Amino acid sequence: MQRPARIPLVPRRAGSLLVLALAGCGSDPAATDSDGSTTASTSDATNTAPTSTAPTSTAPTSTTTTSDATTDASTSDTGVPGEWQFVTLAEQTFPLNNTDVLVEFIRAERPDGGRSFLLYQHAPAAKAPLVIQTQPYAGIDWTGEEVDERWAQQGDGSHPDVDAPDYNESDNIAYQLQDPAEAVGANNVWAFNGFAAIHAYGRFYAGGTLADDALDAVAPYAFARTRPDEIDLERIGAFGSSWGGMMALFGASQAPPDAAPRVVVPISAPSDFVALWTWSSDTFLSQSNNPTMVTGFYSPYWRRATPILGSPPAGAAAEPYTHAGLCPGLPGTLILPHDAWDAIIPITQTQGLAAACANVEPIYWPRAAPLDLETATMTHGPFAGEGLVPSVLIYTYAALALQLAPPEAANVYSVTSGPSLVLHLQLVLAEQKAGKDVAWILPRLRELADPRLQTLVAELNHLQPSAAVLASAVNEVWQTTFDADSLRAQLELGLPDPP
Prior knowledge:
Layout: E1 31-32, E2 38-39, E3 61-65, E4 70-72, E5 84-96, E6 99-109, E7 115-121, E8 128-135, E9 138-139, H1 146-154, E10 157-160, E11 172-177, H2 180-185, H3 188-192, E12 196-201, H4 210-224, E13 231-241, H5 243-253, E14 263-267, H6 273-287, H7 291-309, H8 315-318, H9 323-326, E15 333-339, H10 348-356, E16 360-365, H11 391-404, E17 412-416, H12 418-433, H13 442-448, E18 453-457, E19 462-465, H14 466-478, H15 484-493
Parallel strand pairs: 8-12, 8-13, 9-11, 13-14, 14-15, 15-16, 17-18
Antiparallel strand pairs: 1-2, 3-4, 3-5, 5-6, 6-7, 7-12, 10-11, 18-19
Helix pairs in contact: 4-5, 6-7, 11-13, 12-14, 14-15
């Protein structure tokens, strides 16, 4: 489902800490114009298959993992039934943070007979934390599969959704090829912290079903079990937005217990497909001034979901894709950011999951007025475009970096923007003044006030203690005079009183 527009946070330059974006977290493959026709976002980015002047693997290598143990296996292009098998298709080095990082391009042979694909970026040292980014829409052309080569040859743009179930002769989806260097660049924060990183590709354009996309997101956890010397299996995190958030949620719920994530951040994520059906086919549809836009937008998603859930979703088949079915399998801490003006995935999805699951911590972007469904367009709300580094990314990256960093790490690194924090904290203050419960923001502010957290300030392009940046933002919004230490003490008690 729709990702907010790509958001470059800081310029790419030698010595810079990072270059970040929401790229790949959930690019919408089926945005609709006001007349209901489908369009595609495009980019001038180019892509080639993995190439490098550095030595690459001369032949695929393979590792198999079962539910109990991992073993080496001979090279093979087919998986062992009932087991996960991973084949390294190629290796390549990329420059990042003034050094070279090693990347493996991985094919996963799944227990169900399907295939998933991963880009695995090595950490500089052994037993490193791992961050997984779920990318449902990014085009890749290095798999050796006909479907990927065919879509890449068509080029970026809008194309008929011919590979998905029950093509209806009308649905178009957007396609954009991803240069592997772009994926590596998006790992900048994790590399700077010494983490490994995996991009898990959903390949929306290649068809498949909802269950297939969830298994694409399980693959990184199964793969991590085959590299216990490289990856700290107790320090795994994942994030994604919209359909990528769905992948992050349902992938985490099916992760093997010995490689389960510690923290997952699904942004604007669908979490209950029975409720989402009601929203898309009744609530939103009946109130919109442009019902063709609504049905046209959701059509590619329901064509992938109904073979699994039924139409409408109901009964035992749909139960695993509801809050009641999802909660029991969710490990670790789930941090769910959501904008109240999200028309695609209503905020009630996150509110319902937070009410159903004990380990869910929502972050809200409340708005002064309710979402106007009559005039609403197919967006996740304005929060991803608010500020040079949107606050949703500030909270997401800080939570992952801090919760995955080993306890001996003296410093942890992320990004921030004072003006962006002010924009969100003004929304929080308005809720506080209205007598609403805003305790949901406290865990995130306590993270930003952590004395270990050093952040690249986007407006200045240099590092500052996160707590100092946060104190300035809080002082501006609440008209207080905190420094970093006094703010930390205040946050242990709660938010300051409103002015």
